[in-house]
Amino acid sequence: MSGKKILGGWYKNNSEPLRHTLSVEMASATTSDEPCRNVFLGVDVGTGSARAGLFDEKGKLLGSSSSPIQIWKDGAFVEQSSTDIWLAICAAVKAACSQAKVAPTEVRSLGFAATCSLVAVDADSAPVSVSLTGDSRRNVIVWMDHRAVEQAERINSSNSPVLQYCGGAVSPEMQPPKLLWVKENLQESWSLVFRWMDLSDWLSYRATGDDTRSLCTTVCKWTYLGHAHMQHINDKDSRDMEACGWDDDFWEEIGLGDLVEGHHAKIGKSVAFPGHPLGSGLTPTAAKELGLLPGIPVGTSLIDAHAGGVGVIESVPPTEAGEHDEEAICNRMVLVCGTSTCHMAISRSKLFIPGVWGPFWSAMVPEYWLTEGGQSATGALLDHIIQNHAASPLLANRAASQKISVFELLNKHLETLMIEQNKSFVAALTEDLHVLPDFHGNRSPIADPKSKGVVHGMTLDTSEKQLALLYLATMQGIAYGTRHIVEHCNAHGHKINTLLACGGLSKNPIFIQEHADIIGYPIILPRESESVLLGAAILGAVATRKYHSLSDAMKALNAPGQVIHPSNDPRVKKYHDAKYKIFRGLYEQQLSNRSIMAQALA
């Protein structure tokens, strides 16, 4: 495992990484004298780093590298630089190819995945500032930025029909509220912007010069109605489609009617299914910067969590695969666990679920409706809990001296505490400690961005052991939140009975076991740990036309790994059922408290 995974990963360094220094993960069996291979390249831009991964025709990871990206945080404001991100991608791609001994001639295709951050560029494709500082480098509003809470509330008061396709309300993490905030607060920048793009769309545009947007980004984050393209699903020869899913009345009503001008030129005149080939492939300029050959196919992009879904959802053992049952895939939910956690489930029919994003048609798997739940802070919350505890410096030093991560050390503490306190199972250590993990609001299923985190059961103890208990209670709170999402989705038409997990947190055994025990379903881990990179690589593979469809490519390149089963000890279920009841009550108590204080200040 790498020691440089940023933000919420399982392995973590405590020092600040150097700018564009690289961390590299290598598969064990790669030799330079192999015959020329077909290698698929995937790029994933997360919150803290840009990563590149190379995969063979069986979906096996040949090598990967990462390069950190700069981020500016100031309260609710979180910003990045598209120039910095592209430089990090170039560094990561070159290093991955070098370390994996993959020649440019072997790289057959490229696919991008990225956070659903918002990029602003002018007519010359130069950055336009979205920052109150006026810093032109800062032209990306990061997905987790919550500056536009008030704008989101106003948009939701419109009761536009498009809102039913995002759980009844837009989140401040979606693009319309952020766009409205820029128009109202940065008028000069607003007038300069020629293109507003989701980050993954900007990456494919930067690579190919093709401004076609992805159905994934536009449908999931921009209120685009993807089902307007149902009749185009079998149009294999069309490179893109005229954007016919924008609701002009919605944009006019919320005060952004100027984005409708020029056939929606600033937000997307054409869209394409994920994996569709863009332009004439990689441009000579981008190829030179990346160290690749010009003209290789580049597939239409995905948001990073959705790429994780594509990279893992068919990673089921043969007995679970249901080869003759096309509906089996609809019984699965993918947990993409990183800085935040996204909960991806698909269905043949559209399911309207209050407080859960979607239904989004063909936003992840073509011809299926996507339901997208989420928790805005999971890995980020664990980082916050650990780093702000009095015992954190001592814990970090002790972990470093043992050459293990702080998470591994905390897990060791929990095993020791279980023995010392004579507990039957590790979860029982937190009987007096309960956490509501809404430190960055509740995305699903309550959809309350104003919800706050709660820790119930604190004492004056500041020891490492107390930190270990708080860490465990926080993981449990996150898992109870996922249980709430799963139960809510199943109550509204889904039939989820199997979970698949990927991302940094999925490498933490206690995190995954607690989820299995709390939700009561088995959790399948993929053979390849880098599922988001694999999902991105699959997009490029589909663009080569080697596979008939994205679904065929997923079946060919996904592979299962370990299966984590819930405990069969009835005491574990009884314990978690009790804690889950308390978990649900913490939010209800918060609503009551909010009402009491509102009346006091009225």
Give an account of the 3D structure:
The chain has 19 helices and 23 strands. It is α+β, with helices and mostly antiparallel strands and 602 residues long. The strands form five sheets. The chain has a seven-stranded mixed beta sheet, with helices on both faces. A six-stranded mixed beta sheet has the order 1-4-3-2-7-14, with helices on both faces. Helix 10 (304-312) packs across helix 17 (531-543).
Set down the secondary structure blueprint.
Blueprint: E1 23-26, E2 39-45, E3 49-55, E4 61-68, E5 72-74, E6 77-80, H1 82-99, E7 107-114, E8 118-121, E9 140-141, H2 149-156, H3 175-185, H4 187-192, E10 195-198, H5 199-208, E11 213-214, H6 215-221, E12 241-242, H7 248-253, H8 261-264, E13 270-272, H9 284-290, E14 298-303, H10 304-312, H11 318-321, E15 332-337, E16 341-347, E17 357-361, E18 369-375, H12 379-387, H13 392-402, H14 406-420, E19 434-436, E20 454-456, H15 464-491, E21 498-502, H16 509-519, E22 523-526, H17 531-543, H18 550-557, E23 560-564, H19 570-601
Parallel strand pairs: 2-7, 7-14, 11-13, 15-21, 21-22
Antiparallel strand pairs: 1-4, 2-3, 3-4, 5-6, 6-9, 8-9, 8-10, 12-13, 15-16, 16-18, 17-18, 19-20, 22-23
